[in-house]
Amino acid sequence: MNPHASPAAIAACALELDRVDAGYGTTTVLRDLSLRVRPGQVVALLGPNGAGKTTTLRAAAGTVRPAGGQVRLFGQDVTPLAPHRRARAGLCLIPEGRGIFRSLTVRENLRLHDVAIGGDGRGEALERALDAFPDLESRLDHHAGHLSGGQQQMLALARAYVARPRVILLDEVSMGLAPLIVEQIFTALRDLAATGVAMLIVEQYVAQALDLADHVVLLNKGAVTYDGSPSGLDQDALLAGYLGVDFGQAP
Ligand SMILES: Nc1ncnc2c1ncn2[C@@H]1O[C@H](COP(=O)(O)OP(=O)(O)OP(=O)(O)O)[C@@H](O)[C@H]1O
């Protein structure tokens, strides 16, 4: 990003990763990574396996602590804040693998998320989630582990309605689901985007992600290789991003 960005430009970002270095133990995964998501914007974070997409979301959510750089939410430096503090500041991570409590009921799962962000676990938050995903209503007292894969993912996404976050991070929410369910998930994501919330999405269905997104960040080996509009992303850049080959350069 522009290191000379004005304070007003920084505050205008819902989420900003600014020159973040992060990894696991002695392994560095993200190198000097910068990206921004503006309020109401949907940013697709794409790249090959192992590029660091999940690590980027974790650094934003606080489950991975950056070794360098800053994470800002609406201009506020949240780098030192634990994940639950960031959640209370308006950030919601829907992790890969759904992140639901399988041995708890649907109702208990939804209450838990509400209480986690400071709500009373009753009433209004639950209603918002059920309005968005009416299928869950008749299953409120079922164990989450007994739901179908699609219903489990709906429950995972319902957290975004319970918590009413200002920024949502979504990691491969359509992973392993049947095409019809994937369509429903993308409809739900479109509805979420229409509420004006800022979204950063990692998605294996690249075409659908590009259709939903108004901005794309391409990652390769922990570094940004493209940061711009979906229409400006040509096939070669996309392939280069996925295969790690730069077609624009002479061999
Ligand atoms: N908990 C962990 N401990 C150690 N290394 C990890 C851990 N999680 C991920 N990595 C490594 O970090 C690198 C980036 O992984 P990450 O999951 O962020 O990539 P990704 O782009 O999300 O890939 P994928 O599409 O396969 O999920 C990989 O080399 C991976 O093996």
TrEMBL record:
SUPFAM superfamilies xref list: P-loop containing nucleoside triphosphate hydrolases
- Among the record's GO biological process terms, what is one? L-amino acid transport
**Domain annotation ABC transporter: ranges:** 15-246
Alphabetically list the UniProt keywords. Amino-acid transport, ATP-binding, Nucleotide-binding, Transport
Family matches, as CDD domains: ABC_TM1139_LivF_branched (cd03224)
GO molecular function annotations of the record: ATP binding; ATP hydrolysis activity; branched-chain amino acid transmembrane transporter activity
Q: Could you say which protein family the record assigns here?
A: Belongs to the ABC transporter superfamily.
Stated name of the protein:
ABC transporter related protein
Organism per entry: Conexibacter woesei (strain DSM 14684 / CCUG 47730 / CIP 108061 / JCM 11494 / NBRC 100937 / ID131577)
Lineage here is:
Bacteria, Bacillati, Actinomycetota, Thermoleophilia, Solirubrobacterales
